[in-house]
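Thread: "does anyone have the structure for this chain?"

Original post by V.I.:
We have the sequence but no experimental structure in hand. Need at least a predicted one for the grant figures.
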Amino acid sequence: MPLQKASEDMKYLLDRGYSRNASLNLTVNRYHLDMGERNYLRRYVFSENEIRVHKSKLIPVREINGEKVVVDGFNVLITVEAVLKNRDLVEGMDCILRDTSRVFSSYRFGSETKTALGKLMDLFMEYGPEEVFFIFDSQISRSGELSSYVRKKMGESGIPGDARTAKSADGEIIELNHITASSDSHIIESVDRIIDLPMEIKHYVFM
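Reply from O.Q.:
Generated one for you, tokens below.
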């Protein structure tokens, strides 16, 4: 099982202070892995310190009741779409669900987006956050149109908040520092509390 052994080796390197890129490149070259396997390792393997930090910030979704929530828009929607298709998913060593599809830069707003967003609206209606803010990367095609659609659906669902684009979505999400829905490691390590919305939806769909 080369991926299992590769995962062990990459974690060994991370735990000994090698950078993520160096650890990933060394492991991929050692086992002659393809791009799909490389992407899997990137989203699955974390050092013990990263695992500890990420888990310490992860809170149950029910705790968003009465709280402000910021959603890393494309990150969460892409993963929820993968959940609904039941493919291209991995639960990382830090217990956070991630997609492995590599579709971020080529993401397209379509019917699957609307279905995924409907699941998110259902979840927010159930748990009652004070406000929800969706932040989308402005460089992705049709991000403005998607933001408008999200605002419309939030209004129809009675969910207070906003949806907007940003040139530096990560930076804005980090600056807001509300309860944050994202599987991006840089964001996770820069905010105080995180939630795993795709994992919650996965439990609803498959449990």
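V.I.: this helps a lot. The chain has a mean pLDDT of 94.
O.Q.: and Residues 58-206 form a domain with the Rossmann fold fold (CATH 3.40.50.1010).
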